[in-house]
Amino acid sequence: MPLTDPLVFTGSPVCIVGNINRDVKLANVPGSAALLEDGETSVAEVTETVGGGGANSACMAACLGAKVHFAGKTGADELGGQLAGAMEKLGVKMHLARDTACRTGTSVALNFRNGHRHFLSCLPNNETLRFEDIDLTALSGCAHLLRADVWFSQSMLEGGNQRLLAEARRRGLATSLDINFDPLWSTGAREEIARRKQLLGATLEWVDLAHGNVRELCEFTGSADLDTALRHLAESGVKEVVVHMGQEGSGYYTEGQLIREPAQMADRIVNSTGTGDLLSMCMILLHRRNDFSIQEKLSLSNAVVREFIEGRRAMIGVIG
Question: For residue 4, what pLDDT is reported?
């Protein structure tokens, strides 16, 4: 059986709790000062897809052949229904709170020619997510919980994440926490940034797998280098860490050792966003596969990421 055969990723269902919104993606944007002036800039392509780290991860898991439950929150509006429908078409079982008091959000993703990205976001549904909004029946029958997009809801930061992870552990699920980029790290007050890091740090004792890129892990732990960041996470209770290393590949930290696997370089770039989510999703779906070594799991995950970057794997739900 080829390593990239979808049967590799089937098994017990995974539950994902995180953001769901619309992504409007602009490709090949010239990163010039003209973007800050009156005028108009032509781009190569504009696409409208399902967005949010959690929703994207759920779509990816379903496209890999896994059984997936997704829990989150939308507005009680047409866009929320469109997003749910797009995910259901891919096979994701949806557990949504639909709130009449808020709108479903949108992110505009600018993908620049130089490889950099910038997001403009308005996400009221995700920002107001509370533990009480989460349908806990989504956990039933699942082997693993991924809590994605941990920074967006203040209510979830202030106890909700901890309650969710503890409940998953109580039910016998393995737990994952995606330590992604906090939007406040760029613009927030130092005291508030430190407080938010402390709040998320209080959840780490309930985390089996942490996920993040080198910059995110170092920033979150206040570390000057990756080795220090990984030791800090382990001392805080995290059992293992999936490390997104970009062009250097991927890594897996366990029992004090970082196992590395080189990237499989793409021949062309069709998809430049979502690669970290996909790497983590692959490793989550392989988490309880004892017939693969960690090195083999990383190699397989890197191969899937390459196929996605090259456009050989459709992984994200399209609206409309």
Answer: 56
Check residue 1 and give its pLDDT: 34
Of the candidates 27, 29, 74, 65, the residue with the CA atom closest to the CA atom of residue 46: 27
Whole-structure pTM value: 0.94
Give the number of other Cβ atoms within 10 Å of residue 311's Cβ: 12
Taking domain 6-34+41-309, whether its CATH number is 3.10.350.10 is answered by: no
pLDDT of residue 2: 42
Res 134 pLDDT > 50: yes
Number of residues assigned to the chain: 320
Parallel/antiparallel/unpaired status of strands 106-112 and 93-99: unpaired
Query: For residues 147 and 230, what is the distance between their CA atoms, to the nearest angstrom?
Result: 19
Q: What is the pLDDT of residue 33?
A: 83
Give CB contacts under 8 A, 24+ apart, made by 25-30.
25/49, 25/109, 25/111, 25/273, 26/108, 26/109, 26/110, 26/111, 27/111, 28/111, 28/113, 29/110, 29/111, 29/112, 29/113, 30/112, 30/113
Q: How many CB atoms lie within 10 A of CB 77?
A: 15
Q: How far apart are CA 196 and CA 181, in angstroms?
A: 12
Sequence spans of domains, the chain: 6-34+41-309
> CA dist 118 to 126, 184, 238, Å?
19, 14, 30
Across 30-41, average pLDDT = 87
